[in-house]
Amino acid sequence: MAGQARDPQSLLREAAAIASLAPSIHNTQPWQWLVHEHDTELYADRTRQLLATDPDGRSLTLSCGVALQHAQVALRAAGYLPDVVRLPDPEDGDLLARVRLGGATAPSAECVRDYQSMLIRHMDRRPFADQPPSDEALRQLTAAADAGGAHLHLVRPEQVTTVTMAVGRAGELERAEPAYQRELHDWTHRDLDSGEGLPAGVLPEPAARRVPIRDFAPDQDAALPDEPELADRYARYAVLYGDRDDPAHWLRGGEALGSVLLTVVRLGLAVSPYSDPIEVLATRQLIAREVLAGLGAPYLVLRLGVASPEQPPRARTGRRPVADTVVPVPRD
Ligand SMILES: Cc1cc2nc3c(=O)[nH]c(=O)nc-3n(C[C@H](O)[C@H](O)[C@H](O)COP(=O)(O)O)c2cc1C
């Protein structure tokens, strides 16, 4: 499959197109690829930034980082080593990466499997089965984060209440913000075939959980029983973190997240993220202090577990037309 003799521009275009399967905050897909004859440039699309929810652009940059990791997997699977320069232009922070084809290489079995995982990966917000992920699986997930350029801290059982508190407090503060509410409403009320956002069919039925997921429908009454049994009793939680809280590290954090998510698929596990406790300064600091204990800057919380066969399936999120996000630049 080593791919000499293929036109670099078409290979780079295919890789960028596959990268659009990457996850993104509220499925905003805040990226644009300019595909030149010999390289492709990944830009942050600031018109799609959630200015109230994600004013720093942390989640936007993490999302683009996953897209960058997916593009690299696609190039390796096509038989090329990706040659990536991150943030190549000090004058333009929105140019997140420039990618060229490095040498030809036979794709490894692992890489081909990662490529296939990209095609089926999705977030699963449904309550998990009563079965914990194995210690070995969790070890492989932390190794994937390390290899990807960031780290994963497995939340210890005695730290879960802190995560629950952080999520609860972040939700209260965000729901009190009209601009946050408007963004949430905007991105959760698009048609399923619009190819963006989180239409209702994607989101799970309300459930009482140990660590509640983001309330995507705060104007609807969840109508839960008075003393419901808590779902996700066997879920494990993890914090994706890095050495610094800046765009260069968020980009690497996104690449690490991509590796973790593809490893989740390989291990047959399920995952969904929580960015709400990171979006709010006070709860981000709480997680940094009480959960990470100074290990680094938190980027995202993950809920990890085993999918329950008893839960009804949910619709998959769509994607924007590739022509909107991958723009070939004609030769001069
Ligand atoms: C940086 C980032 C933050 C996210 N935050 C949340 C979140 O707080 N709650 C949630 O349920 N999903 C969250 N998601 C998941 C996205 O909503 C999801 O990836 C997107 O809708 C695309 O769906 P898919 O991943 O199933 O393809 C986040 C994803 C990313 C990459």
TrEMBL record:
Coiled coil stretches, renumbered: none
Provenance organism: Actinocatenispora sera
Domain of life: Bacteria
Spans annotated as Disordered: 309-332
Alphabetical list of InterPro entries matching this protein: Nitroreductase-like (IPR000415)
NCBIfam families, per the entry: Rv3131_FMN_oxido
Protein name per the record: NAD(P)H nitroreductase
GO function terms (MF aspect): oxidoreductase activity
